[in-house]
Specification:
heterodimer, A: mainly alpha, B: alpha+beta, 2 domains, 4-stranded antiparallel sheet, 9% strand
Chain lengths: 397, 300
């Protein structure tokens, strides 16, 4: 057959759509009920998770069109194609190259034992399954399950788990990596780090730095070793300045170009290529000092955006409120039991600040960077929460 | 042995068996499965099967096709070079144009799609167009008129909405595809769109060449410089050559490698998935009902 070509039939909003996705919901809800019966979760968790599992049906086609997160169709098409043919659709990125992140996401999410993968939101239920399993794994470090549950009721977390994108997978893998690293399980941590190289190279870089800090510098042991690590990072930065700036400048330019709108209404890379080239020089970071200065200026905005004057839909005020809440939770954890004096916590916060500073430098599109911020911040928040647990303290004694 | 003790496997198995015996392996589940069968039959009966109709085309002049340049990642996008196959783009633009829709309209395709298929021009230029009540109210309040009849613009929208033009990665072919309830009509329509698009592209180029020849002759008549006269003559020759190439029955933009054809079975809805999903939902509803009955004190 010369022209057998796959197109996604999404069943968008039809009766069949609700039938297929209610079946997926039923499977997850049955799993939760079974675990409740086995006393793995309490009644609060059961009720909360039944509500969370229902979220993809509330968000997609009901609260907003799935086209708002248009990439969902690419992930869904890839997953369906992999399941039906065993091969990949080979999506092209804007730069004309294959996107292995979509393939890997579809492969990982596709192993979830769901009844069907028929619609565009099926992968959202796979995301839900991964989130639930992470909750089951994470809660065993705590005596109070309800407290853990609250950390899994953060709106952005539920939103990203309710769409067929890779963000939730990145969050889950990052959480598994960081907690295993803190528990000194380096092999497990390395195994979880590897998929991030494909799924989100920025997260891979930040977490690799954390691994290096712990494994080679032992920066989590005491303040002197931490200072030695910081000095090492600074010296390494000076030695590699040219290469670091090259990467930073390329990404800065790429994000500006992606969001570029020309006077004639043309947008993105093509418009930038045509009209925006002259402003490229102004965006260039001249030195690491320049980069650090810019990062410090932009970091507060990065943490609290979207700012009120940029609110353009109902999600923006909610995300703004949530960003304050997340900062409050992190600071509260730091103050609780004097965690801010803990070397492990200091190192964790340092890596979070490095990651946030780099994102602040690249920050352009509000929607994209609110998503990036949450993907980065949430695993570190859970890690800080873990550091405050009795389980961690008993492990370290 | 210690692992079994740690996880208390025996007790867990006993609780699991109790769970299944109490909630799953009960009469109510059988009733639920029976109800799901009836529901599935109803859904399958009321849903419309969609067939996949597709066709493969290939660049008629492969020598002129341009492969994407290998410049590397974001740099390609930022600094240019992500050039796509030109005949495919040209074909897509022509296919989605109003002028093509107008040509198709004049051949009566509007009547076949929006009317009863009557090829009488007086009929198909007056096919009444219905509007929703909301559209009419909005038009009345805002003070604009809605069209009373279907036009070539509606046909243009129909072509754009229903026929997708794709070029799969690593495949030199351009694939036209559509999902349709009526496969025979879709095959006929797609075939007509392909041929008309190519014909339209040819006629447009012939007309362009004729205009260039006309203007060049005018310039040649007043030209005093022999070098300029020679260049103008060469342009005229080249345009005549183009016209000779276009005034034949061969395809201009794309060769029809695989004529439009339909999938044997419908691509949607998937009947087995409907039965499975429906069974799971009904079974779960039955389990949930029993579960709430037995655990309502613990849950609330």
């Amino acid at each position: 057959m010369v022209n057998e070509y796959f197109t996604l039939h999404s069943y968008g909003g039809t009766l069949e759509y609700y039938l297929f996705e209610l079946a997926n919901f039923s499977a997850l809800a049955f799993f939760a009920m079974f675990l409740y019966k086995l006393n793995y979760i309490n009644s609060n968790s059961l009720l909360a998770w039944l509500a969370i599992f229902f979220a993809p049906l509330v968000f997609n086609y009901f609260l907003f069109s799935p086209l708002l997160f248009g990439d969902q169709f690419r992930y869904a098409a890839e997953a369906m194609y992999q399941k039906s043919s065993g091969s990949s659709l080979d999506f092209l990125s804007a730069s004309g190259f294959k996107e292995p992140a979509i393939q890997l996401t579809a492969k990982i999410l596709g192993v979830t034992p769901l009844p069907n993968y028929m619609t565009v939101t099926s992968l959202a239920f796979a995301n839900m399954f991964f989130l639930f399993v992470t909750f089951l794994w994470f809660k065993r470090f705590f005596s109070n399950e309800n407290e853990v549950l609250l950390y899994f009721l953060i709106p952005s977390l539920i939103l990203f788990a309710s769409v067929s994108l890779r963000d939730l997978l990145i969050i889950v893998i990052s959480v598994l990596f960081i907690i295993n690293l803190i528990r000194d399980r380096y092999i497990y941590a390395a195994v979880f780090l590897f998929p991030l190289l494909v799924l989100k190279i920025q997260m891979f870089a930040f977490l690799l730095l954390y691994l290096v800090a712990r494994l080679f510098f032992r920066a989590h042991k005491n303040h002197y070793l931490f200072t030695f690590f910081v000095l090492g990072v600074m010296i390494g930065g000076v030695i590699m300045e040219e290469q670091i700036l090259e990467v930073l400048n390329l990404y800065r330019l790429a994000f500006v170009a992606e969001n570029f709108v020309a006077f004639d209404g043309s947008i993105s890379y093509l418009a930038w290529n045509e009209y925006g080239g002259d402003s490229a020089k102004a965006l260039e970071l001249a030195s690491l000092g320049d980069a650090a200065y810019n990062a410090i200026l932009k970091l507060p905005i990065f943490f609290i955006m979207p700012l009120p004057w940029n609110w353009s839909n109902i999600f923006y005020p909610l995300q703004s409120f949530e960003s304050w809440l997340l900062i409050y939770l992190y600071v509260r954890l730091a103050m609780k039991q004097n965690l801010y004096k803990n070397s492990e916590f200091i190192l964790l916060t340092f890596i979070l600040l490095i990651g946030s500073s780099i994102y602040a430098l690249l920050m352009e599109n509000e929607g994209t960077f609110v998503r990036y911020r949450f993907t980065l911040f949430y695993p570190f928040l859970l890690a800080a929460f873990y550091l405050s647990s009795a389980s961690h303290k008993s492990l370290k004694k | 042995m210690s692992i079994l003790k740690k996880f208390n496997i025996k007790e867990k198995i006993s609780i699991s068996l109790e769970f299944f015996n109490e909630l799953v392996f009960v009469k109510r589940s059988l009733y639920a499965l029976g109800a799901s069968l009836l529901f599935s039959f109803f859904i399958v009966q009321s849903s419309t099967p969609f067939f996949f109709v597709s066709s493969s085309l290939m660049d008629a002049d492969t020598s002129s096709s341009s492969a994407p340049m290998d410049m590397g990642g974001a740099a390609t996008a930022l600094f240019g070079g992500a050039e796509r196959s030109k005949p495919a783009d040209e074909f897509r633009s022509n296919m989605n144009s109003y002028l093509l829709a107008q040509r198709m309209w004049n051949k009566g395709w509007g009547s076949k799609i929006f009317g009863n298929g009557d090829m009488n021009e007086e009929y198909f230029n007056k096919i009444p167009k219905s509007h929703t009540l909301i559209d009419r109210v909005v038009a009345f309040i805002s003070g604009y008129d809605l069209y009373d009849y279907f036009t070539a613009y509606d046909l243009q929208g129909h072509i754009q909405d229903t026929i997708a033009v794709n070029q799969p990665l690593g495949n030199p072919n351009i694939v036209l595809s559509t999902k349709t309830k009526s496969k025979d009509f879709a095959i006929e329509f797609m075939n007509a769109v392909i041929l008309e698009t190519d014909q339209y592209a040819k006629e447009r180029l012939i007309s362009k060449s004729n205009e260039i020849i006309k203007a060049t002759y005018t310039q040649l008549a007043v030209s005093k410089n022999s070098m300029i006269a020679s260049a103008l003559a060469s342009t005229i020759n080249s345009e005549y050559f183009k016209i000779a190439n276009l005034e034949n029955n061969l395809p201009h933009l794309l060769d029809l490698i695989d004529p439009p054809h339909s999938s044997e079975y419908p691509v949607a809805p998937k009947v087995s998935a409907i039965f499975l999903s429906s069974a799971i939902i009904f079974l779960f509803a039955s389990i949930l009902f029993s579960f709430i009955q037995k655990n309502k004190e613990d849950l609330w």
